[in-house]
Amino acid sequence: MSATELETGSLQRTIKDLFAGAAGGVAQVLLGQPFDIVKVRLQTTTQYSNALDGATKIFKNEGATAFYKGTLTPLVGIGACVSIQFGAFHWARRRFETSNSSSHPLNPSLSYSQYYLSGAFAGIANSVISGPIEHVRIRLQTQPHGAARLYTGPIDCIRKLCAHEGVLKGLYRGEAVTILREAQAYGVWFLTFEYLMNADAARNKVKREEISSLKIAGYGGLAGEALWLSSYPFDVVKSKMQSDGFGPNMRYKSMSDCFRQTWRVEGARGFWKGIGPTLLRAMPVSAGTFAVVEATMRALG
Fold first, then answer.
1. Plot region of 154 (φ>0 → left; ψ -120 to 50 → alpha; else → beta)
2. Integer angstrom CA distances of residue 73 from 56, 65, 150, 161, 204
């Protein structure tokens, strides 16, 4: 096969990976948004005693539609994010396979450290758009209800964030901790899923394509739990920074300052506030994401 044919095949594969990821992203948002708003409220305020109390009060005070506040931004944005995650992961995986084939032609399969690095690469690539998208979502989720609200929608929020301190310090606030979270989270996410899929295929002596959708969903759900358990403290700091005030109302000067203040005021428990609804959300959301992505990839061939 010529180099041109290889490049064309690789491009077609990448396009399929991106499309499958986008489909998984839409499923992820629709399944996870109600859990996410409870998580963010628990991380950024002290008005709720636990997840159930938070969900109850949100429903009572703001109605059922409040659980889908700011959904338009993640529906478009997270679809793009998950598309990038899977596209970047498989691109990096194929680069490792090409490298491995020259040194181990009989077994070019990735090592688990290479799976982690591929996932971390996907997370870093994803952080370029996930940082501002999640910042806007958090602002919309944590703003006052009713007439006191600060933003009329995502576009208004973006405009006002940029007006405060520009694009980098305004819209991209918290980007450093976002990069750390994304690298760790998606390194562990893809590593866990690939390990479970490979172990199943070896144990049952079947091809990956023959693993059932139910098992794929189960392994995806477990990968989601591993993702959050490995990266949650970074997420807490990110939420605190991205819901912080501007100018004289700013509490956290930097990522390290936010870590220090959280530790001093709340101790270790402060880095795990909201972990309950997050883990509850992670199982169905991650299961649905991987199930939809794998089904889409198989349908595309």
1. alpha
2. 24, 15, 16, 15, 42
What is the predicted pLDDT for the residue at 6?
Answer: 40
Nearest to 198 by CA among 215, 180, 176, 181: 215
Whole-angstrom distance, CA of residue 288 vs CA of residue 297: 14
Beta-carbon count within 10 A of 170 CB: 17
H-helix or E-strand spanning residue 218: helix 213-242
Percent of the chain as helix, strand, coil, to the nearest 5: 85, 0, 15
Q: Which of 113, 104, 32 shows the shortest CA–CA distance to 74?
A: 32
On the CB side of 72, how many CA atoms lie within 13 Å of its CA?
6
Amino acid identity for residue 202 in this structure: A
Going by C-beta distance under 8 Å and a sequence separation of 6 or more, which residues neighbour residue 16? 297, 300, 301
Contacts (Cβ under 8 Å, ≥6 apart) of 59: 66, 67
Q: What is the pLDDT of residues 194-223, one digit of tens each?
A: 999 999 999 999 999 899 999 999 999 999
pTM, two decimal places: 0.81
- The whole-angstrom separation of Cα 225 and Cα 125 is 22
Each residue's pLDDT tens digit, 95-132: 999 999 988 888 888 999 999 999 999 999 999 999 99
Looking at residue 25, what DSSP letter applies?
A: H
